[in-house]
Amino acid sequence: MGKDRASHPLHFATRAIHHAYDPADHQGAVAPPVYFTSTYTFPTIEETDAAAAQGGLLYAREHNPTTRLLEARLANLEGAEAGVVVASGMAAVGNLTLSLLSQGDEIVVHQTLYSNTMAMMSGGLPRFGIKVVPVDLADPANLETALTPLTRIVYFETPINPTAGILDIAAIAERAHKVGAIVVVDGTFASPALQRPIEFGADLVLHSLTKYINGHGDVLGGAVLGRRDLIEKIHGNGVRYLTGATISPMAAALVMRGLRTLSLRMERHGETGLQVARMLEAHPDVAWVSYPYLPSHAAHDVARRQMANGSGMMSFGLRDGFDGARRLLSRLRLITRAVSLGDTESLITHPASLNRARRKIRPDATLAPCVGDDLLRLSVGLEDARDIVDDLRQALAR
Ligand SMILES: *Cc1c(COP(=O)(O)O)cnc(C)c1O
Question: Which residues form the catalytic set?
Fold first, then answer.
């Protein structure tokens, strides 16, 4: 347990650096070693038997010491019993749903989700006889008509990608638990530094590690943290044979390096995010801004209860709508036009433009409810706030 043996409980930022690692167990290496191996041997056949019987280190699709450390650390930071780390955020969604749902089961989802989770819910799971029920969870009372005795999972994001809408975790969990459904929160937009859904009643938390947790835009990863019985199913069935979507130990080590500065980065993302959101809201050419820590946000009170700050994610629209969004994008000099989010550099995307372009190869591509033609999604990075504000100002100028 390393430095966690201290006599008093350590705080979040400290645990993000030290939890579950003791250099004394690794020849004094201060940075955790990266274990590059595909398989494991044991001194005796009896010890091999024991490893097989106990689900121990046998083969690296299932277990790797580097990945295990990341799993232990992330679970600790979320306040979860256990965790599993996989190759990407979508691998986390895939492992979770394929491990916990069977033909005939129902999953209730919030109507707006990250575009590829949306694609899985609308085009993927129904092919396997799983019923997907989209509802507007902005009013948790809407769950009453959506839940049935067959509902196994209630699944949503908060903050929501790409709108930065906020859903009330405690109110949703309370209703879902009455019918015995498992509550899954995708907390990618906040990271555990700002929001820990298990404290509000969630059973499982999902993250795209690609985003804030790694934070440097150079690696893919995903995680599910929460109840041990559920994590064991996702690990033992999902990762072992349903998807085999194991993360590489190098990627796990890079995510762990990013995690060391998560607290520090999220503080700055939140500070700059609020400054940028205020500037946009005050600009005459901006029609609306959705940022959880602006008092104008529809669920501002819930955001303040659930999150330590508003993070760096926001969406906004210009009075000139679709054309205005394209003009703004073409004029930016510093903020990078790219999908993904949570990086050190500021990233901006216009879902409606992407959607129109995609329809050439995928005619059925649609935008999620609440994602208008004018919506721009901005991931505020760690550049000097003045430079981000200046870039938006010059791009907005007529
Ligand atoms: C990016 C993202 C995912 C998918 O993660 P990948 O690592 O890109 O596979 C899932 N949920 C949300 C909210 C995301 O932003």
Answer: 61, 114, 186, 211
